[in-house]
Amino acid sequence: MVASVTLVAAGLSARAGRATLEELRAGASVATLRSEQGVARLHDAEAHFLTARSRLRSLPVSPLRALPVIGRQLRSADHLSSAGAIVAGTAAAGLDQVRERLEGGLPSGPERARLLADLAEVAGAAEDRLRGVDLGPDEALVGPLADGRAQAAGELSELVASAERARVAAAGLAQLLAGDSTQLLLLGNNAEMRAGSGMFLTVGTLGISDGRLSVGEIVPTNDFQLRESVPIEGDLAERWGWLEPGREWRNLGVTPRYDVTAPLAARMWAAARGQEVDGVLALDVIALQALLRATGPIQVEGEQLDADNVVQDLLHDQYVGLDLDDPANQEARRGRLAGVARAALEALERPELDGRLLAEELAAAARGRHLLAWSPRAEVQHGWEAMDVDGTLEGDDLSIAVLNRGGNKLDPYLQVDAHLQVSPGPTLTEVSVELRLDNLASAEEPSYILGPSPPLEVAPGTYVGLVAANLPGSAASGRFDGFDQLAVAGSDGPTRVVAVPIQIPRGEERTLTLRFELPPGPGAVRVLPSARTPAISWTGPDRSWQDDHAEVLVW
Fold first, then answer.
1. What does each C-alpha distance from 35 to 42, 85, 98, 225, 383 come to in angstroms?
2. What is the torsion angle, in degrees rounded to the nearest 10, for the CA atoms of residue 67, residue 71, residue 72 and residue 76?
3. CB within 10 Å: which end of the chain, N or C, has fewer?
């Protein structure tokens, strides 16, 4: 009877520890680093698991461990309780060390690289300890223990992978900041969209030397179109060569594959300026807003901009009163994004900068593809990949993009809703995506926003563009209902792309239905974010979400 009561108490303690970890996991974010409460809750979970282990090893229970069947279950429960305590304790210790290193704010100069190297060591130590966790026997376990061990094994594998990514990311950033390099900056404007990013209307350089940042030349891409295209090949040339992405900077983002776009941009900059770069960073208006949340206000042309007004300024207010046909107005407008980007990046050198807040904000921007990075250096590129800002596509990805070709700034007024359905069958799985595109632009908006730009002849406020979908590589029969011919069709790296033209007058909406087939049986797709603002509103078989992050659907 005493043993039974003790075992029940041990089970309750283990459940309490697991419930605490689940609660923390559900709300986990970089913000956890900013609160002592998260660390305290991890210590609570560790205490619950240690109590469970202590009860499982107590005198009334110890004789049962010698029994052939019950003993195996007790040893498994003991190992799982110990594993829970190690996981919680490791996480708490790691967060404590990170908090301690960031307590004084983000250092400047060489100290930044050393800080990141320290954080890589912290993550590496956590990774090593987690890899050594023993979950105990995995055979002949009763149902609840077998299920619990299987779940623990999966979650432990995820934790090890997370610690590894943190180590690789911090080490890659440390390598980048410790040396001397020139990064190409692609500044995207979300008022005029491409695939998975805003249109790159401004380009420049960012120097990195011994942990310090220096903003170089930033110019409108329209000021130096290449006379001859940089050679392109493969899927980019076959699918999108007609838009000359190797010559026209504004068409660089026709594919969401940033691992293709970025090295092409580097070659274009070398052709235009005769300067080789060591990497390519892409930021859009939402990324600049994230920077300003961390740095605080900036001054641009005598005006104060901050996280609350910078999006409205760059996507709308800067166009008020501008004449679409006046070259002087165009020149002033093109310099606005460059000025904001310069001031925001220079603010990263402020001594009072909160490194934890900066990490939190940039992580949120990266989840929505508002921040992308590429490097030809393997160790740095591995860091970008670990941070998931490399912008590569995988074979099970689904990406929906609306590419603006109307010479206007109407994307913030184009509301996009997507409804995804999956119908598994014995011979194939049918997938459909119903897209509703609603042009909400008002006739009162500035002509610079409404367009169109010559020689396009449509009514002001008409959205002209392409709807492009990158489908999983195993997809077949990609098509849009009502379209006999596709503007673009074929392979795009590990995916397949299909695209059709659209025209949506101001105040009207269009509904398009995309269909494709996947192989039968269990499957999954990862729906990628579009970097649009406002974000695409998605509904799926069992959930709804905004596409400010990637969402995985499994069936």
1. 12, 21, 12, 49, 26
2. 180
3. N
Torsion of CA 189, 195, 196, 202, to 10 degrees: -30
Closest CA to 206 of 188, 172, 181, 176: 181
Order of strands across the sheet that contains 429-439: 476-480, 509-518, 429-439, 414-424, 537-539, 544-546
CA angle in degrees (0–180, nearest 5) for 89-386-257: 155
pLDDT class of 331 with cuts at 50, 70, 90: low
Pairwise CA distance, residues 376 & 69, whole Å: 57
Token output for 288: 């600049």
Q: Any residues with CB less than 8 A from the CB of 274 and at least 6 apart, and which?
A: none
Q: Are 275 and 547 in contact (CB under 8 A)?
A: no
* Assigned token pair, 233: 């090949």
Higher pLDDT, 483 or 334: 483
Residue with tokens 């060390």: 97
Smallest CA-to-CA distance from 156 within 79, 97, 95, 93 is with 79
Which one, of 299, 292, 420, lies nearest residue 365 by Cα?
292
Write down the number of H helices and E strands in the chain: 13, 19
The two three-digit tokens of residue 68, written as one number:
């052939």
CA-CA-CA-CA dihedral for 355, 356, 358, 360, to nearest 10:
160
Torsion of CA 84, 86, 92, 94, to 10 degrees: -130
Which range of 133-147, 299-313, 331-345 scores highest in mean pLDDT? It is: 299-313
Amino acid at 380: V
Q: 6: part of which helix (H) or strand (E)? A: helix 2-26
- Output the CA torsion sign for 230, 232, 237, 240: negative
The separation between CA 512 and the C-alpha centre of its own chain, rounded to angstroms, equals 26
Rg over alpha carbons for the chain, rounded to the nearest Å, is: 27
Single-letter residue type at 429: T
Mutual angle of helices 110-131 and 70-102, in 10-degree steps: 180
Residue 334's pLDDT is what? Answer: 64
pLDDT digits 0-9 by tens, 422-433: 999 999 999 999
